[in-house]
Structures are given as structure tokens and as C-alpha cells.
């Protein structure tokens, strides 16, 4: 479940190194990798194309239409030595494997389309992000950068506190968590020395799809740690895949520099084979802007169709389906209708509603209607909550990906005018993609789930409800049945 990172000490996401913007250990290079020596360089006598070295044959130039990979380590082409390392080009239709040559290169020949590119057989002392490289028909040449694992300063990772073995980290870089059995957690403690935005991202090969990593964050200090927040996803994954890399962004204010924060890393193995290891990168992303001074009005673009009135005998069924568990497997987006629906491949196999096989009733959001699991406020009245009339429809510190900055997003008219205007007489409207995005941000912004630590009175968790990270938004949803 994606939670705000260190709720009491920093603003949360999206996904951390804590120390200034110095490079990330060995996996980040100073600029681009150095090019191989020029074929016309007379000071390079070992160049096979050099006429001063006639004992070596000419090497034919690789056609520009070929898909190629060059692997670098410490700014030099990587020689695998006696180790057999395959470069893999993979998409839904084709898998092409080519042995990495002694010159650090591999040529797949002519391919067609887009491919994820990764390595098989890389020795464990090296690391890289297997999800970071893609070859396309426009960009056929791929450069893969290898790095080394940074070791913690102290500890063995076994416990939550230093006295129990918690690893101590002082620098950004790539670290490795060794998970020896299902459910084991490896603990890390670190202290930022500069304000800024940091990220923690797992580097698990989603194409192999055997391991699912999980990040847990803790509030508190060296002496007292609490409020564990579980995060799955946010990083690279394949549609419907088991592996969902985590990515978390942490915002460290100037007042929080010097505070100690703790995380834990764990993983599930689909094959139940252990040990497994999880490489994760701690990266300084840039300066921190809390976004409080940048307020943006958000208006709906997809609120176009008014929700139908319930038919005689129909009742509103909330999205937990009576289980107090919100699960995305029960709902899917329908491209044809532009709404989310109740989905069950067996229950609606005969397409009884005419929305397509497996799709049931349209999912609705309660705008004015009260919901069972969240009694703090209705969404319509969330513009004036509590004694101080706080506007819960203003979501602070939202990350604007296109601008790489934070801002406060004001959804007041989005809810009270746009979607309320498309609600039926019962106070519910249809759920679009943009409305789902708002509900997810709302649930995260107001900590509707805290993993059992200090749940807000009237929140879903306070009332015994549970939701995974991708299903937080279902708290306000249901459908007519």
C-alpha cells in the first residue's frame, strides 16, 4: 500500500538518498560513456582498421539498421571475460538473445518494433537497472551502464534499531537486500545532510517476473520508530505481471535535515525459491519545493455523461462487495464506455449489460451520498471539514511530472461543480480515469490507511477496511445491482 513516506517528519512520493546531490556511487557516470577509440586514430595501433597493424583483419561496419547494445562499466566497454552473458531483446512477440562479446558489444541484427533490453548471466558483483533500457526502430543502439553495489557503513539488517542490527547508510547509491525466506525484512537507517527530493527505486527484472519487491517506511527517530507504511508498485512493471518494482519519492525540508529515517525491504518469490536479492537505488532527484505557493485549479475534462437513475429494485453495493476489502481485481476500465466497471470474467461472461464480455455495471462514485467506510465527510462537503473548515479538496504537495515540481491542486470545482453536475438524484456519478486519479490522491493525501498505526477516526482503516496500494481510491465507490 502506498503511503506517505515518514508521515510525521516529511511530506510524502512516486515513489531518498539523503545526502546532497553527489553522484550515485558507481552506477551514475560523469556525463556520457567515453567513445571507443576512433578507427582513424594513428595513436591506437591495436585498432583492427589501422593500416599500421596489418596482422589483424578488417572489422566490417555494423549496418545502421541493426539493433545493437554496448555495455559499459566505469566509463569503459565491459569485457565479460570467461563469463557468458547474454543480451536479451524482448517484446510480446519475440525474444532475441545474443552473447556479449569481449568488446562489450552485441548485435541482434535487424529486428522490427520496440524491445525491452536486459542482460542474463551478469555476475552478482555488478548491478544495473534491467527496466531502464528500450530499443525502438528510431533508437536501435542501446548503451547499458553497469555499476557496483555500495555496502552499508555498519549493521547486518536484521532489526529495526541499530542495537538490533539495522544497517546504517551514509551515502546515495545502489544497495542490495538479501532476502533469505518469505517475509524476511532487511532494515536500513539513513540521515539526510541536505534538503531535496529523493527517490528509492527497486531494480528487479520484470521480464523474468518471478520476484515482487516491497518497500516499508517508518516515521520516528533513532530511538523510536513507528507508523510503518507499505509500498508496492510505482516503478517499472509489465501489464498483469507479478513483479511490480517500487518507486518512492521523499521530500526533505530544510527543517528535517539531520533527522534519521528508516526503511525495510522485503520480497515475495512466485516460485517460493529463496534466497533472493533486491537491488535498490537511492537517488537525489533535485531541490525541494513544497508547492504550497503554487496553487492550481483543476477542472474536469471527462465529466460528460450524467449517471442514470437506479431502476426499481436496484440497490447500491459498495466496492468492497461486503468483505471490507477493496481489491482492483473486481474492477476494470472499459475503453468503449470510458468508465470503470464491476468486472468478473465468469459472472458476466455472457455480456448481460452489453458492455463487453466480463464487464458488469458501471462503477459510481459517491459525491453527495454518504459511504459506509468513510464518515469524516462526503466528497461534496469535503471543502469545509472540521472545526477550522479545512478544504480537503485542495491536495497539497502533488508532483507535476511534466514540470518536475510540486504544486497544490485545487479540486473544489472539479468535485462540487463538474462531477456533482453529472450525478443522479442519489448523489453518485460515473467513475472516469481522472476521477479515479483524484480519489487515489485524496486517499493518500489524507492517510485513509496507515497500516494500523494511528488510524484517523472515521477513516476506512478505523472502521476495519483494507485496501492494497492500487485500490485505495475505491473507498468512495460502488455500483447499482
List keywords for this structure.
mainly beta, five-stranded mixed β-sheet, 2 helices, 31 strands, 4% helix, 33% strand, disordered N terminus
What's this, in brief?
By secondary structure, the chain is mainly β. It has helices at 412-419, 433-445; strands at residues 68-73, 76-77, 86-90, 95-99, 105-107, 115-120, 126-127, 134-135, 141-148, 167-169, 173-179, 186-190, 196-202, 211-220, 225-231, 234-237, 244-252, 261-269, 276-286, 295-297, 316-318, 325-326, 331-334, 339-343, 359-362, 364-366, 394-400, 405-410, 428-430, 466-467, 477-480. The protein starts with 67 loop residues before the first strand and ends with a strand.
Mean pLDDT: 85
Integer-rounded radius of gyration: 26 Å
Percent of residues in beta strands?
25-35%
Helix content: under 10%
How many helices? The count is 2
- For the report, how would you describe the main beta sheet? 5 strands, mixed
Global structural class: mainly beta
Number of DSSP strand runs: 31
Amino acid at each position: 500500500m502506498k503511503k506517505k513516506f515518514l508521515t510525521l517528519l516529511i511530506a510524502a512520493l512516486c515513489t531518498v538518498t539523503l545526502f546532497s546531490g553527489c553522484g550515485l556511487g558507481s552506477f551514475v557516470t560523469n556525463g556520457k560513456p567515453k567513445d571507443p577509440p576512433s578507427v582513424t586514430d594513428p595513436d591506437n595501433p591495436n585498432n583492427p582498421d589501422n593500416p599500421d597493424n596489418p596482422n589483424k583483419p578488417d572489422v566490417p561496419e555494423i549496418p545502421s539498421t541493426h539493433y545493437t547494445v554496448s555495455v559499459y562499466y566505469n566509463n569503459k566497454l565491459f569485457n565479460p571475460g570467461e563469463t557468458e552473458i547474454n543480451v536479451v531483446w524482448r517484446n510480446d512477440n519475440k525474444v532475441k538473445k545474443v552473447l556479449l562479446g569481449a568488446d562489450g558489444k552485441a548485435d541482434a541484427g535487424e529486428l522490427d518494433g520496440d524491445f525491452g533490453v536486459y542482460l542474463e548471466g551478469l555476475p552478482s558483483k555488478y548491478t544495473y537497472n534491467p527496466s531502464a533500457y528500450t530499443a525502438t526502430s528510431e533508437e536501435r543502439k542501446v548503451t547499458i551502464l553497469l555499476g557496483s553495489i555500495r555496502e552499508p557503513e555498519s549493521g547486518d539488517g536484521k532489526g529495526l534499531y541499530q542495537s538490533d542490527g539495522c544497517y546504517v547508510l551514509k551515502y546515495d547509491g545502489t544497495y542490495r537486500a538479501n532476502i533469505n525466506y518469505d517475509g524476511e525484512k532487511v532494515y536500513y537507517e539513513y540521515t539526510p545532510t541536505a534538503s531535496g527530493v529523493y527517490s528509492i527505486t527497486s531494480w528487479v527484472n520484470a521480464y523474468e517476473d518471478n520476484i515482487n519487491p516491497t518497500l516499508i517506511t517508518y516515521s520516528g527517530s533513532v530511538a523510536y520508530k513507528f507508523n510503518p507504511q507499505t509500498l508496492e508498485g510505482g516503478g517499472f512493471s509489465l501489464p498483469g505481471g507479478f513483479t511490480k518494482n517500487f518507486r518512492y519519492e521523499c521530500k526533505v525540508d530544510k527543517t528535517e535535515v539531520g533527522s534519521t529515517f528508516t526503511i525495510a525491504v522485503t520480497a515475495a518469490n512466485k516460485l517460493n525459491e529463496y534466497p533472493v536479492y533486491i537491488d535498490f537505488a537511492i537517488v537525489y532527484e533535485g531541490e525541494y519545493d513544497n508547492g504550497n505557493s503554487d496553487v492550481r485549479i483543476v477542472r474536469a475534462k471527462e465529466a460528460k455523461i450524467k449517471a442514470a437513475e437506479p431502476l426499481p429494485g436496484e440497490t447500491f453495493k459498495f466496492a468492497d462487495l461486503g468483505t471490507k476489502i477493496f481489491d482492483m481485481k473486481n474492477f476494470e476500465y472499459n475503453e468503449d464506455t470510458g468508465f470503470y466497471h464491476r468486472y468478473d470474467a465468469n459472472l458476466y461472461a455472457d455480456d448481460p449489460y452489453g458492455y463487453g464480455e466480463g464487464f458488469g455495471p458501471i462503477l459510481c462514485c459517491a459525491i453527495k451520498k454518504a459511504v459506509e467506510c468513510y464518515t469524516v465527510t462526503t466528497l461534496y462537503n469535503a471543502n469545509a471539514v472540521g472545526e477550522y473548515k479545512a478544504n480537503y479538496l485542495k491536495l497539497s504537495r502533488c508532483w507535476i511530472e511534466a514540470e518536475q515540481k510540486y504544486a497544490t491542486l485545487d479540486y473544489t470545482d472539479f468535485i462540487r461543480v463538474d462531477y456533482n453536475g453529472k450525478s443522479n438524484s442519489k448523489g453518485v456519478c460515473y467513475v472516469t480515469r481522472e476521477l479515479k486519479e483524484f480519489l487515489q490522491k485524496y486517499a493518500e493525501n489524507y492517510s485513509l490507511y496507515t497500516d494500523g498505526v494511528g488510524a484517523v477516526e472515521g477513516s476506512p482503516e478505523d472502521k476495519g477496511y483494507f485496501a492494497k496500494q492500487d485500490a485505495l481510491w475505491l473507498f468512495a465507490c460502488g455500483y447499482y445491482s
